[in-house]
Amino acid sequence: MSDSCFVVRLNRYLDLTPAENKAIAHLEQEPREYSSGSMLWQEGDDLSELLIVHQGWALSESRLPSGKRQILRFHFSGDMIGASGIAFRDAPSSIVAATDMVVCRFPRRALGQTFIEHPRLAALFFSISQMESIDLYDRLRALGRSEGKARLANLFLSIAARMRAVSGQHNPVVRIPLTQSDLGDAVGLTQVHVNRLIRQMTEEKLITRNRSTVTLVDEPKLIELARFVDRFSALDSSWFPSPRG
To answer: How far apart are CA 221 and CA 218, in angstroms?
Structure first.
């Protein structure tokens, strides 16, 4: 697929060779459209395919025994969905379209073939996966030790950092097309509490929110509040194997 956000993201970290770019393009040959609310797969489904997000947002969710929803991660343009569960045959969480989406599905065995032919891509994919894992650990730590305002700040900063890794621009205005219920389920707060905290953060001139956008008005203070570390701004590729071809 032309204008691939996934290829753009990878090239932010590494100058890919024409052969490596072609290998990625091979994974994006079959774009499919999904409407908001569509279930891309359910927890426990056979995880025979992976997804690359070309447009739109999805969320990874799990249902608790109480029936409540826990959102584990948001996915948007430039993301690969399913890599975190590739060690398992069954999907560890459900994937739901949060907006209208365009995604490319490909069999996960194709990823294995890509790794055989392009070991440097394997190293890059692995590194990005670990960056995302550490970012998730940071958010879990925030859930356990931080007040609600710091949890929201951490989430906004994490989304901004991931989007900047694709765009290459340090824009304080971040498109976050999520409901307050979505935000609450991601940080362990009620919708009412999220609404109150967003008003408070606006009054304190930390952020402003206008429908589907959040502006990080005072990013240094948000970083201090959340004790946020940007896990996506740099990647150590010094250990990567040399490219083939």
So the answer is: 6
